[in-house]
Amino acid sequence: MKKISELVKERPWVGWALYVVTILVVFGLGVLGSSIIERRQESNQIIQNVKPISDWEPNNEKWGENYPREYETYLSTLDTSFASKHGGSKNIDMLEKYPDLVVLWAGYAFSRDYNQGRGHYYAIRDIRKTLRTDVPQPATCWACKSTDVPRVINQKGAGEFYKSQWKDLGSEIVNPIGCQDCHDPKTMNLRITRPALIEAFERQGKDIKNSTHQEMRSLVCAQCHVEYYFKGKTEKYLTFPWDKGFTVEDMEKYYDEVGHVDFVHALSKTPIVKAQHPDYELFKMGIHNERGVSCAECHMPYKSDGGVKFTDHKIQSPLNNISNSCQVCHRESEDNLRKNVYDRQDKVLELSDLATKSLVKVHIEAKTAWDNGATEEQMKPILKLIRNAQWRWDFVAASHGGSFHAPLECARILGNAVQKSEEARMLLTSVLISLGVKVPVQIPDITTKEKAQIYIGLDMEELKRKKAEFLTNEVPVWDRTAEERGSKVNYDMKNK
Ligand code: HEC
Ligand code: HEC
Ligand code: HEC
Ligand code: HEC
Asked: Is 0.90 topped by the overall pTM?
């Protein structure tokens, strides 16, 4: 082949052609470069507020003026139409579905009323309406419900906040979970607003500020979707029991050492620890966490709207959106992926059901033993086993996604729950025989929620009457006071 210089000597127009092509290429590259820079600036501008958002702004609508896509998808957590086999956003009465729960929680407010969790937008409305908030509750109960919580904690300090009564803060806490709970209003970076999570990290010698971006995409959820308790008789200081680790045994050791008891069981007199919702902790034991997948990947996948890619803020069951939630990583069909989820959930539920049935019997048998004159001494080792068994069962039952997030860990925990409950029953059998009681003990008819509630001695009509009175008399005063302060209360929400 001839050299270019020789070619140009022979045919000068080739030289000119090369010259022009080079200019065009350079010009093209220039245009491309400047468009890339422009795009970058555009994407930076997305995060520049059109209307500045003030610090501690609880009103989600105000944030929404700057970020309409995120706001609109957030608003759609109002949609309660989706139900999967075991989850979803429908308002399902869990006590009606599983009347055994009434017996397991006898002596605790959960035996009155317990519904399936639904979208974040319902948080304020649901806590006002539940029959669980009629007993005097500390303000700590508001902690995971509202964007007003960081605002009021900033004013009062966390200690003062938790020490107040739930009802005393009714007019302050009116906006449901939203933007300020997870975002810094100036930069829109993810941030942690709940002191309990920061403090739990500190006690483990870790600074939460050193977390990676990917960790933050789960930690924002770990502000609320975790196991917790209220520390101190009057302080009611919101505390995560993680000092010894994240397993069910680690937390049990912690609770045993501090002697924590949530309630004394009305039938068996067992000092029970009620598990809350250890979603984050159980998720940590599963394969997706091990592979570095965060909560946001499945519950807040990316979405496109007119060529703009953004984070879907309709936080919900991923089964309502398998293509965006799962198929970005998995090639299997929607049907297969759904089946994978149901298979794991069904198997964990089968074990959970064994534990539930065994625990119902053990509480009733223990009551029978007490009724027939069993001594504290005889009952002590039995009650310890019941405490251990119920804690394990509840740890799985209360973690709403655990049976998919970490099915193997759930199965392990439930296996231990069944073993401990059955061991307690064996010990009880010999106590009952020594007291001259005929075994097996007859189990009363508790096949419906109503029957179970009558059996444990609840006056549901009275509880419902008091709640209706509270909703008509007290709640409107809260809302009026909130509006006078400038917080817009969402009227459509009031009676939904
Ligand atoms: C790999 C995907 C994936 C990740 C990551 C993930 N989840 Fe889930 N989550 C699911 C699936 C699937 C369900 C079951 C939904 C159903 O049954 O309808 C679920 C259920 C839930 C539920 C109950 C929802 C309902 O409708 O019943 C909650 C709450 C939850 N997850 C929170 C979390 C939190 C918090 C994290 C992070 C610590 C997390 N999830 C991480 C897939 C995921
Ligand atoms: C439960 C936590 C949570 C809440 C509540 C929340 N966000 Fe987000 N938001 C996230 C996460 C997680 C991301 C992804 C951030 C990332 O990966 O950097 C995100 C991303 C964003 C972004 C960056 C652009 C994008 O779409 O990825 C904006 C803007 C935003 N959110 C606005 C809002 C607004 C407005 C609200 C209230 C209506 C809100 N967020 C409520 C967790 C939350
Ligand atoms: C400020 C506390 C708080 C934060 C932060 C929070 N949640 Fe929730 N979440 C709740 C509460 C409370 C409910 C139940 C609301 C109800 O039923 O009224 C809930 C409900 C849910 C549900 C059930 C919704 C449905 O339609 O089935 C899912 C799923 C969920 N959260 C996932 C997440 C994920 C993922 C994150 C992090 C990106 C997160 N949450 C952050 C408090 C929180
Ligand atoms: C960000 C990527 C990612 C997303 C999103 C994701 N997964 Fe996965 N998933 C993985 C990885 C990685 C593994 C581990 C498999 C491996 O390493 O070979 C896994 C494993 C699994 C497994 C096998 C678990 C077991 O028991 O061994 C199932 C089932 C599964 N995913 C279902 C889902 C479903 C359903 C969703 C949506 C709700 C989902 N995944 C979303 C990455 C993802």
From this structure: yes
> Whose alpha carbon is nearest atom 12 of ligand 2?
217
DSSP string across 387-424: HHHHHHHHHHHH-TTHHHHSHHHHHHHHHHHHHHHHHH
Burial level of 384, CB count in 10 A (0-12/13-18/19+)? middle
Find the 130 Cα to ligand 4 centroid distance in Å: 36
Contacts of 82 (CB under 8 A, 6+ apart): 88, 89, 90, 316, 317, 319, 320
At 56-108, the pLDDT tens digits run: 999 999 999 999 999 999 999 999 999 999 999 999 999 999 999 999 999 99
Task: Dump pLDDT digits (tens) for 467-489.
Answer: 999 999 999 999 999 999 988 77
Contact of 493 with 118, CB cutoff 8 Å: no
What is the tally of helices (H) and strands (E) in the chain? 24, 6
Q: Is the peptide bond before 185 cis (omega within 30 degrees of 0)?
A: no
Nearest Cα neighbor of 102 from 267, 248, 230 is: 267
Tens of pLDDT, residues 140-154:
999 999 999 999 999
With vertex at residue 206, the alpha carbon angle to CA 203 and CA 208, rounded to the nearest 5 degrees, is 110
Cα(278)–Cα(80) distance, integer angstroms:
23
Give 192: exposed, middle or buried? Use CB within 10 Å, 0-12, 13-18, 19+. Answer: buried
Report angle CA 74, 79, 80 to the nearest 5 degrees: 135
β-strands 271-272, 308-311 pairing: unpaired
Pocket test for ligand 2, best of 47, 70, 120, 298 (most atoms within 8 A of CB): 70
Which token pair is 16?
């000119």
DSSP 274: P
Distance CA 376, CA 339 (A): 49
**334 CA to centre of ligand 1 in angstroms:** 16
Alpha carbon of 298 to ligand 4 centroid (Å) = 10
Residue 420 to residue 479: CA distance in whole angstroms: 48
The span from the CA of 59 to the CA of 104, in Å, is: 39
Distance 119 CA to ligand 3 centre (A): 7
